[in-house]
Specification:
- This protein is an alpha/beta fold.
- 46% of the residues lie in helices and 10% in strands.
- A 6-stranded mixed sheet has the order 4-3-5-2-1-6, with helices on one face.
- The protein starts with 21 loop residues before the first helix and ends with a strand.
Amino acid sequence: MKLKTFFATGAAAFALLATFPAAAQEDAAPAATQALPSGPEGPALWSVSDEDTTIYLFGTVHVLPPEIQWYDQEIADALTSADTFVSEIPMGAEADRKMQAMAMTRGSLPPGTTLRSMLTEEQTAAYEASLAKLGVPAAAFDQLKPWMAGLTLGLLPVMQAGYSPDSGVEKVLIAKVGETRRDALETVEFQLNIFDTLDQEKQIAYLMEAVEGVDEARAFLDSMVTEWAEGDADALAALMNEALTDAEMGDKLLFDRNASWAEWIEARMDTPGTVFVAVGAGHLAGERSVQDYLAERGIMSTRIQ
């Protein structure tokens, strides 16, 4: 189970970027910047259609550096033609506020319990060392559940490196769709529940993998963004498969959700119109992707970029 898999699969996690404890934001030093693809190279875009319905499928990256330019004419044409914009979870200012509040409520430990009290002496030493690398005080996340601390610890290095949800694909698309009707495939509760229902042992294992991955989180996301910006879905899938080592989390984070979304798309094909669906890029790449599950239902997708 690798935290870095969540970079492409869970929009709700990135609400955490706005809810870091103040000490983590104030004391963490920005990392040096690194050149990334300038684009637009052509992020992958698919469509499924029948005589009166077209559904575009666009894979997103939830956080990006502001200098990445990816919004090209093919994407613009698909988006502006849509009468409905569909994201993983509800998006927008009000939805973001509710999401942040819910994340902190669900991700906080009960009074009298601290995160470090749940760890062994060896785990505590490794955990505190990883926080020190990021310039974060040892007690900064003491009131967070292990899964919440794991997500936070995995996201903080890339935030320090200049990645931001404000530059992420969903935020850019939302700004462009304006008053277009919006819908969502999942709720925030559902996405947070993926982690919050893990038993304590698995939550701690998840946290410790985040601890071990602090040094590589930035490089992994850089690689993922490179493949995404170039539209290389096969290479992106290879990265995700390498990161996904826990079968249970693979089902929860990717495959079960892909199957559910394919069912949603099949049902939506019965309603005339044009829909633009924007979901984490990992869902539209590799085996058991959304497109694979659609094919099992006799619905073929066509790559248009």
